[in-house]
Every structure is written in structure tokens, then in C-alpha cells.
């Protein structure tokens, strides 16, 4: 066998070995990811069981909260109405909604679904922690330092968004829709499934939307997003925020729309600052590299 053929054979064997090594590495990463997902599922299940055990508090104080006139949001609205003379209509004194169940297993399904929902919300920080553990080995030391605090800030923003959606958007939506009537002959008989899905969608949706600064941080790190682009498209972002506010809030009243739009605009401005800080750090590192 000639030297040329021997070299080609050796190169082919080496290439085959590299392909097998890469394939094994891929499946090893899948295995690691699988165990991260299993741990997340176990954590969510445990929180779900705890929610199921303490369901009386969850149902009476949390789920049914926006239907009571002594809910925190309504009490604050009454205080504002008295202090700034906003009128009696601004103070919530009645929410004429009667919840009904139309399915045989409806109430049992409600307890299961709402317990699962609580499990997902409470387990969200742990899910972020498992994601961080999976991604962390692939990052450099500099990238790890710059992303330090990811779990804390992402969890804080998510919790803030959920609380905002629950106490502000959900309360205002329930108040508006509960008191809205096309005719006095029509009463609001709302299924418990419809009510729960509305509260859950609004709360979770707000939590996800409040992750905007984290998303912008990641996009800025990989060079997809820049503060110059965000400033130049601010007017289009404002229109998009109005659309998102209209989707998130099922009510057409101006107060609810403004209550949702203002925090989203604030988040967008904060995201610009975050992107600008990322860009400054990049430019500083490039300058240090060229000067060294």
C-alpha cells in the first residue's frame, strides 16, 4: 500500500473517530438535559402536592380573592377615590358574578389544574436554576461572571409580573367584566373553568412579559440586539406594547389598558439601559484587547 493511500486511510479513521466522539457528546448532553428536566418535573410535582394539601387557603384567599370587594386592589381603589375625589364609580362595591360548575368532575379537575398551576409558578425559580446549571459548563469564565445573578433577577422579574397580573390586571378585568351588562335581563353566570383560566392566563402572561429585560440582555450578549436599534424602533415598540396590552387584558376600558401599558413601557426603557450596558462592556473589552 502506498504512503498516499495509507495517509488517506488514517485520515478517514481519524475523521470517523471525531464523528463518533461528537455523536457521543451529543447524546451525553441529551442525557444531562433529561435529568435536569426530570428534577424540574419532580420539583413541580412536589409543589403541586403541597398546593393540593393546602387547597382551602389557595381557593378561598387566592382564587376567589378578586371576586370579593375587600380584595387589596379594590380597597386601594376606594382609598384613592376618597383621597382624590375620583367619584363613587371608581370605588368597587359590588362584583355581580356567580360562579357555576357545569361538569360532573369539574370541581375535582379545578383542584388538580389550579394545584398544578401553583406548582409551576412556585417551581419556576428552580426551573431557571436547572437551566443555568445546564448552560453554565459551556460558558467561559467571563461569560459566567457577566451572567451572575441570572436566576435571582429572572425569578424576581417573573414574581413581580405574576403579582402585577394578579393584583392589578386580573382585579381590574374581573371588576370591569363583572359589572358590564348589555341588558339587565342578562346575569353573569360564569363557569369556574372560564374564571380560573382567565386569572391564570393573565398572571402567567404578565410574568413572562416581565422577563423582557432578561431576554434583551441575552440578545445583546450575542449581538442580535443593540440600544441604537431599540431607540430607533421605540415608536413601533409603543404600538406593539399597546397590542400586547390589548391581548393580555380582556377589557376595553382605558384604566386597565393604561395600567398594563405603563409597566411595559417602563420595562422597554429598562431593557434599553440593559442593552446599553452590555454594549459598553463589549466596547471596553475590545479596547483593552487592542491596547494590550
From TrEMBL:
Determine if Transmembrane is one of this entry's keywords: yes
Keywords of the record, alphabetical order, are: Cell membrane, Membrane, Protein transport, Translocation, Transmembrane, Transmembrane helix, Transport
Give the location in the cell.
Answer: Cell membrane; Membrane
In the bilayer, the protein is annotated as: Multi-pass membrane protein
InterPro entries registered for this protein in UniProt: TatC
Q: Name one GO cellular component term.
A: TAT protein transport complex
What are its GO biological-process terms? Answer: intracellular protein transmembrane transport; protein transport by the Tat complex
Chief location bin: membrane
Indicate the transmembrane segments per the record. 37-58, 108-129, 150-172, 192-220, 232-248, 254-275
Q: Which Pfam families does UniProt cross-reference here?
A: TatC (PF00902)
Keyword Iron-sulfur, does the record have it?
no
Q: Which GO MF terms are attached to this record?
A: proton motive force dependent protein transmembrane transporter activity
- Its biological purpose: Part of the twin-arginine translocation (Tat) system that transports large folded proteins containing a characteristic twin-arginine motif in their signal peptide across membranes.
Q: Which family does it belong to?
A: Belongs to the TatC family.
Assembly behavior:
Forms a complex with TatA.
Protein name, entry field: Sec-independent protein translocase protein TatC
Q: What is the organism of origin for this protein?
A: Albibacterium bauzanense
